[in-house]
């Protein structure tokens, strides 16, 4: 008996509230269809229904697209019950649906396509492995990303509101959401609140809020700019002042939440014991984002597999005996973006000293350009080397050390 004849195949189309499962045999014959709620109690009913289609000696194999989102609870349940669970890349299911003359789109058909992929690629599909630690890190990274986006929107709104009150506000502080700046907008949301405030009084306020970094000179500058701008008081000024203070409160809250999340990420990353922060340009935020996208490094047998997963490895296109490698537009685009950002940091030079941040990568990048590659191609080469380094650091739990530059040969 062929190995594939020993199983029945269950593809599950996942949704927030209900899932749809389709059961097929090794000849792609549809045996049954089950709809069930996304809850642990309903998962047991799924197993009971599947058993009805199990003849003697057949083992069920489940295929899920998303084992980190809506399908995570189901994947964990099935694994704890001892079942075989495979993770199906969304690109495979998309290609399967498009491979038929008439394109269909329904929960039932999507689940059947997943089941067909299970049959065809049983030996190559990765096992589902939803670790709680990696999932928690991923959720925190997602939460932080959402807060950062909201904070950026808030800062833009504060810019707009301040321009009505203080036409020269952008000359007051280097950033409008710094600790001292927020304290100033909160205390003095509009120029009329500064009436009667002396230079020394404002200077004392700035000293207290900035830990003595700002004082008399800054106070004089602000009061001078306010006087030059003129009176900006209008009707319903109290409501306009309220808006400024509301933005300040919201910005402070989001800054605090981001700090709390980063502290939590720091503690979780300690449990993994990966030392990605030792790599040039990697802080706790970047390290956590890399781990969230990569997950358990052991699911990648080699750096080449990780590179293909990240869309860094080139794809070969050929026809009629002729072909060439092209840049991949597939793979995990979030991870690809992280590696791109990290690669840019490796080849940068410090503003003050003009020294390369990472001399080895700086030399490697310019060597590739000298070999005839474009800047974009050279940067992809840097990304590919970074994949090897990140893979080795996560696999072996080792820190990054900058190796010595290769000696240049005498001319």
Mean pLDDT: 91
Kindly report the spatial arrangement of strands forming the biggest sheet. 3-2-1-4-5
Query: What is the CATH topology descriptor of the largest domain?
Result: Helix Hairpins
The top-level CATH class of the largest domain is Mainly Alpha
Cα distance, first to last residue? 67 Å
Report on the biggest sheet.
5 strands, mixed
Write down the secondary-structure element order: EEEHEHEHHHHHHHHHEEHHH
How many beta-strand runs?
A: 7
Helical/strand content category: alpha/beta
Radius of gyration: 29 Å
Helix content: 40-55%
| Global outline | globular
**Poorly predicted runs:** none
* Total count of domains: 3
CATH architecture identity of the largest domain: Orthogonal Bundle
Describe this structure in words.
α3 crosses α4, α5 (132-165) packs antiparallel against α9 (237-272) and α6 packs antiparallel against α9 (237-272). The protein has three domains: 3-130, Nucleotidyltransferase, domain 5 (2-Layer Sandwich); 135-268, Helix Hairpins (Orthogonal Bundle); 276-396, no CATH class. The strands form two sheets. The protein has a five-stranded mixed sheet. The longest helix is centred in the middle third of the chain and has 36 residues, at 237-272. α2 (72-80) links the parallel β4 and β5 (84-87). It contains 14 helices and seven strands. The radius of gyration is 29 Å and the shape is globular. Helices cover 53% and strands 10% of the residues.
């Amino acid at each position: 008996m062929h190995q594939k004849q020993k199983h029945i195949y269950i593809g599950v189309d996942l949704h927030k509230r209900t899932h749809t499962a389709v059961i097929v045999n090794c000849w792609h014959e549809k045996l049954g269809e089950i709809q069930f709620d996304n809850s642990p109690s309903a998962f047991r009913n799924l197993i009971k229904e599947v058993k009805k289609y199990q003849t003697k000696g057949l083992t069920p194999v489940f295929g899920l697209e998303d084992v980190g989102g809506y399908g995570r609870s189901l994947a964990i349940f099935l694994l704890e019950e001892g079942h075989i669970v495979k993770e199906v890349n969304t690109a495979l299911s998309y290609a399967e649906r498009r491979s038929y003359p008439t394109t269909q789109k329904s929960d039932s058909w999507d689940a059947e396509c997943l089941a067909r992929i299970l049959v065809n690629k049983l030996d190559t599909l990765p096992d589902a492995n939803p670790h709680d630690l990696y999932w928690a890190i991923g959720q925190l990274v997602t939460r932080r990303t959402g807060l950062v986006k909201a904070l950026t929107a808030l800062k833009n709104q504060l810019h707009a509101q301040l321009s009505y009150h203080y036409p020269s506000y952008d000359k007051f502080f280097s950033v409008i959401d710094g600790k001292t700046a927020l304290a100033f907008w909160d205390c003095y949301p509009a120029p009329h609140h500064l009436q009667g405030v002396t230079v020394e009084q404002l200077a004392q306020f700035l000293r207290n809020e900035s830990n003595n970094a700002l004082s008399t000179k800054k106070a004089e500058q602000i009061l001078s700019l306010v006087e030059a701008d003129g009176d900006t008081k209008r009707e319903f000024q109290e409501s306009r002042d309220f808006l400024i203070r509301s933005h300040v409160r919201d910005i402070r809250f989001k800054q605090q939440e981001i700090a709390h999340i980063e502290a939590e990420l720091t503690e979780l990353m300690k449990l993994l014991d990966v030392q990605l922060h030792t790599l040039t340009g990697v802080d706790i935020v970047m390290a956590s984002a890399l781990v969230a996208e990569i997950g358990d490094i052991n699911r990648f047998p080699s750096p080449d597999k990780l590179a293909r997963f990240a869309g860094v490895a080139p794809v070969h296109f050929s026809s009629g005996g002729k072909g060439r490698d092209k840049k991949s537009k597939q793979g995990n685009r979030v991870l690809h973006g992280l590696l791109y950002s990290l690669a840019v940091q490796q080849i940068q030079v410090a503003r003050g000293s003009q020294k390369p941040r990472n001399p080895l990568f700086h030399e490697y990048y310019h060597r590739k350009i000298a070999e005839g590659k474009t800047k974009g191609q050279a940067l992809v080469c840097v990304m590919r080397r970074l994949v090897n380094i990140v893979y080795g650091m996560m696999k072996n739990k080792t820190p990054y050390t900058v190796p010595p530059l290769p000696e240049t040969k005498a001319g």
